[in-house]
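Page 42, continued from yesterday. The earlier attempt failed because a stray header line got pasted into the input along with the sequence. Redoing it now with the clean sequence only.
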Amino acid sequence: MSKRGGRFAQRGGKPQQRQMMQQLQKLQEEMLQAQDALGEETVEVSVGGGALTVVMTGHQKLQSVTIDPQVVDPEDVEMLEDLIIAAVNEAVTRLQEMVSERMGRFTAGLGIDIPGLS
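This time it went through. Structure tokens are written below.
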């Protein structure tokens, strides 16, 4: 039996390849839409009992930092620096979890490691 006719055409022929390509394109479009939607999301993290709050977008861009004036002590700048580091790191961790949750469905079972999803 030739490769162009019979059972081969039904199992691995061009119609099946076209369908697979269409599915991949649809998946790619859905992933791009999900990534765009993440950019509209934000996480807000407060540390130090609300003394410092950061807001970060789903694309991991720091949007705002709010500092309670009582925390600003020229004698203890280290504490303020520590609060900023803690808040930003916590926001990044929460965003990575959000990205993993939202985007993980696209790569589930494929064995693909995408930064921010692991």
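Notes: Residues 77-107 form the longest helix (31 residues).
Reminder to self: strip header lines before submitting.
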